């Protein structure tokens, strides 16, 4: 049995490829150039596509390979382009698809999957004959292998999409998806100047600073690449410290994979207290210096 | 040139009010309904296109009988004509795409606008399934839509970059929340919307979904939920955890 993995975000490949390897052989499709680190996840082959925005042509290629019997299953990272491509591919190959799976189990001739539903308020367990899946981060712990995968560029059929230009988002120079500790701030911070009150604590525990949607996208207190949540990054640090974050489900969806969650919020009814391991009802500007003192001792 | 725009409107229950029963099963029965956030952005984007270029905005809700009154808000925001299709099943976007594409084929259109990923099921698969069923190009997570003649230029909002692309019309365009701030309709428009006709019809295709729901239960939160109302009591506990985890 052979599967393929598609992701336009190279960071998401190790976990999905490790998971797919557990089912049998696997090929990876990703935009090139492929850095050496990605070649260590046991793929029989890594096929590079020249632009992941050409979702129609990529779906055409994979649909034809599925119909030739090359692949039993496809596992696609849940990014904007990944989801677009998955929908097109499921339609073109006339197969069922299940989105954002966090668990996958073969049960005879069918497949049992789990995914969050109702905005994360429930887990939906489904049984189907689906072959195309989008995958949420954390489906497996990435494990490297000895052998390096060979890389081959594939040529795509002409796309109806023309890419005119692209612009990297302003980056804060950090990758919050890889952080071991995250200090995440919400609207409760008050204003951008007060970030300086957070920094000493964050640096004392080697944490990167991230934020909720309003903080990154509406107020621009932090760069967009530091946004945690459904429409931002999905993070899985050892410790996630939520400061002044109320804990809307869209935010929780981005940090649910964290090992330990600590919350500080003035409002004791804030939903974040339902999703944390340790919480202090209080003002972050009062609590943080005290935590910092404790750490230094 | 004027464009015929179809906007797909999703109606969802107020998810914040979901409370699991003693067995952990969740249900959305009797919860108040509203237009999904990205559908509001979709309506706003569609109405803005019509205001700029002329044409017509047709709203389609695939929902239930209870969704019918929700169309009034779409009217108040500027949707010209609305259809509510009943028979929505919920968990199978392939069925949703089949019903919607069959309806869309009967309505003149150049641009189909919908939300990128809905807040309740967030599969994000519908735009692709729909574009596939209609045979149109798909442009995902748009933050600007600029049609010119028989083409459209769109800025896509991706995780690490923004990408400008162009595609021929007709096309399916999914929007991101960042595209606009949905308008709050003035009272006069809300009153006028109440008098407007809403067409309803039953889904023309029966559900042949082979996706079987085994369970739908609240996730067991394995969080410890040790909450301290006195800061002094919480500090030593949290300091200890931080030192252990991050040494």
Quick tags:
heterodimer; A: 297 residues; alpha/beta; seven-stranded parallel β-sheet; 7 helices; B: 247 residues; two-stranded antiparallel ribbon; 6 helices; 28% helix
Query: What overall form of chain B do the CA principal axes indicate?
Result: globular
Portion in beta strands of chain B: 25-35%
Helices and strands of chain A, in order, run as: EHEEHEHEEEEEEEEHEHEHEEH
Compressed to H and E, one letter per element, the order of chain B equals: EEEHEHEHEHEEEEHEEEH
Instruction: Enumerate how many helices of chain B there are, as a single number.
Output: 6
What can you tell me about this protein's structure?
The complex is a heterodimer of chains A (297) and B (247). Chain A is an alpha/beta fold. Chain A has helices at 13-21, 55-67, 80-92, 199-204, 213-218, 249-255, 284-296; strands at residues 2-6, 25-31, 45-49, 73-77, 97-101, 103-107, 110-117, 122-128, 132-135, 151-153, 162-168, 181-185, 208-211, 239-243, 260-265, 278-281. Chain A is elongated and about 65 Å long. The model of chain A has no long low-confidence stretch (mean pLDDT 93). By secondary structure, chain B is α/β, with parallel strands linked by helices. Chain B has helices at residues 37-53, 71-77, 93-104, 126-134, 187-195, 231-245; strands at 3-9, 11-13, 33-35, 55-63, 81-86, 111-115, 138-148, 151-157, 161-168, 171-175, 199-202, 212-217, 226-228. Chain B has a 9-stranded mixed β-sheet with strand order 9-8-7-10-6-1-4-5-11, sandwiched between helices. Chain B has a two-stranded antiparallel sheet with strand order 2-3. In chain B, helix 2 packs across helix 5 and helix 3 crosses helix 4. Chain B starts with a strand and ends with a helix. Chains A and B meet through helix 2, helix 3, strand 5, strand 7 and strand 8 of A and helix 3, helix 4, strand 7, strand 8 and strand 9 of B. Strand 8 (122-128) of chain A pairs antiparallel with strand 12 of chain B.
């Amino acid at each position: 049995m052979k599967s393929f993995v598609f992701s336009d975000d190279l960071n998401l490949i190790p976990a999905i490829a490790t998971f797919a390897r557990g089912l049998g052989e696997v090929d990876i499709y990703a935009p090139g150039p492929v850095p050496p680190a990605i070649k260590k996840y046991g793929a029989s082959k890594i096929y590079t596509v020249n632009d992941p925005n050409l979702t129609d042509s990529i779906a055409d290629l994979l649909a034809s390979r599925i119909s030739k019997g090359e692949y039993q299953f496809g596992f696609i990272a849940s990014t904007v382009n990944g989801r677009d491509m998955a929908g097109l591919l499921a339609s073109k190959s006339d197969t069922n698809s299940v989105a954002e799976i966090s668990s996958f189990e073969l049960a005879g001739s069918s497949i049992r999957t789990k995914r969050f539903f109702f905005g994360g308020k429930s887990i939906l367990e489904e049984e189907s004959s689906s072959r195309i899946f989008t995958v949420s981060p954390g489906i497996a712990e990435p494990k490297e292998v000895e052998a390096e995968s060979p890389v081959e560029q594939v040529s795509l059929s002409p796309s109806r999409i023309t890419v005119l230009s692209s612009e990297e988002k302003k980056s804060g120079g950090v990758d919050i998806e890889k952080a071991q500790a995250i200090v995440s701030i919400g609207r409760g911070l008050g204003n951008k100047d007060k970030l300086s009150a957070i920094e000493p604590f964050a640096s004392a525990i080697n944490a990167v600073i991230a934020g909720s949607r309003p903080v990154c996208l509406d107020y621009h207190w932090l760069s967009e690449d530091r946004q945690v949540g459904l429409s931002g990054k999905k993070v899985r640090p050892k410790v996630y410290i939520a400061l002044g974050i109320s804990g809307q489900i869209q935010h929780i969806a981005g940090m649910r994979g964290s090992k330990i969650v600590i919350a500080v919020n003035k409002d004791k009814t804030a939903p974040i207290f339902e999703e944390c391991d340790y919480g202090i009802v209080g003002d972050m500007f009062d609590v943080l210096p005290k935590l910092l003192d404790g750490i230094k001792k | 040139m004027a464009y015929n725009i179809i906007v797909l409107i999703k109606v969802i229950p107020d998810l914040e009010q979901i409370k699991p029963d003693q067995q952990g099963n969740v249900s959305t029965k009797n919860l108040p309904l509203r237009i999904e956030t990205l559908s509001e952005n979709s309506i706003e984007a569609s109405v803005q296109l019509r205001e700029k270029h002329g044409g017509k905005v047709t709203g389609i809700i695939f929902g239930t009988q209870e969704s019918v009154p929700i169309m009034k808000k779409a009217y108040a925001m500027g949707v010209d004509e609305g259809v509510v299709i009943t028979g929505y099943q919920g968990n199978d976007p392939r069925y949703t795409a089949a019903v919607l594409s069959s309806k869309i084929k009967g309505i003149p259109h150049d641009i189909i606008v919908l939300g990128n990923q809905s807040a309740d099921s967030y599969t994000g698969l519908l735009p692709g399934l729909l574009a596939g069923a209609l045979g149109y190009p798909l442009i995902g997570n748009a933050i600007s839509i600029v049609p010119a003649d028989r083409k459209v230029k769109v800025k896509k909002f991706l995780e690490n970059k923004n990408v400008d692309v162009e595609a021929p019309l007709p096309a399916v365009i999914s929007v991101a929340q960042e595209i606009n701030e949905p308008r709050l309709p003035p009272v006069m428009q809300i009153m006028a919307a109440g008098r407007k006709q809403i067409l309803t019809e039953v889904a023309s295709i029966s559900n042949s979904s082979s996706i079987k729901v085994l369970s739908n239960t609240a996730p067991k939160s394995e969080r410890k939920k040790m909450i301290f109302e006195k800061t002094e009591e919480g500090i030593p506990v949290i300091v200890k955890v931080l030192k252990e985890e991050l040494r």
